[in-house]
Amino acid sequence: MKYKILIILLVVAVSGCKNEEKNNPKIETEHNHTRSEPKSENKKTLSPHTSAMAMIGDAHIHIDYSSPGVRNRIIFGGLLAYDQVWQAGAHMATWLETNKDLEIDGKELKAGKYGFFVIPNQEEWTVIFNRNWNQHGKDDYTENDDVLRFKVTPQISEDIKEHLEYKVNKTTETSGTISMSWEKVTIEFPFEIK
């Protein structure tokens, strides 16, 4: 009889321990004497996807882009050749969307969504709005799809902007500026809401 009671107690203790293991992973680790593998850290994205936007009056301006890093490289005139079209970001072409018509450089940009491209140069940059906003890099870029082109003078800084950054800034209830900064270069241009 003693042995039956001892066996019953042993069975109850073991099954209780197993139930506890199911509900408590820490106990399972202790019982099995196994270590869980450390979680592998996700590799940091080199060109994170981001956006810049602002409301100016009742106009919503939205810029969508991937933001590459400098990573100790010469960007303009190095990684990116002068006088060649660049999609103004990494991976997919950067795009700008506006729900109101804009006036930029004395020209009209109708409400809509546009690919945003630039042609960098040491003296002046060409800024391009292209009707083909959904393309990988500049793979499908064609000048025939440009809806607006104008020139801007780059501002050069001694400080390095590690990641590409766009800003949409409100200057009045009907106007603002769009800027793009990367490495030591910033370009900026004003716009008016029509």
UniProtKB/TrEMBL annotation:
Residues 21-48 are annotated as: Disordered. Residues 21-44 have a biased composition (Basic and acidic residues). It comes from Croceibacter atlanticus (strain ATCC BAA-628 / JCM 21780 / CIP 108009 / IAM 15332 / KCTC 12090 / HTCC2559). It holds the Pfam family DUF2911. InterPro entries: DUF2911. This is DUF2911 domain-containing protein. It comes from the Bacteria.
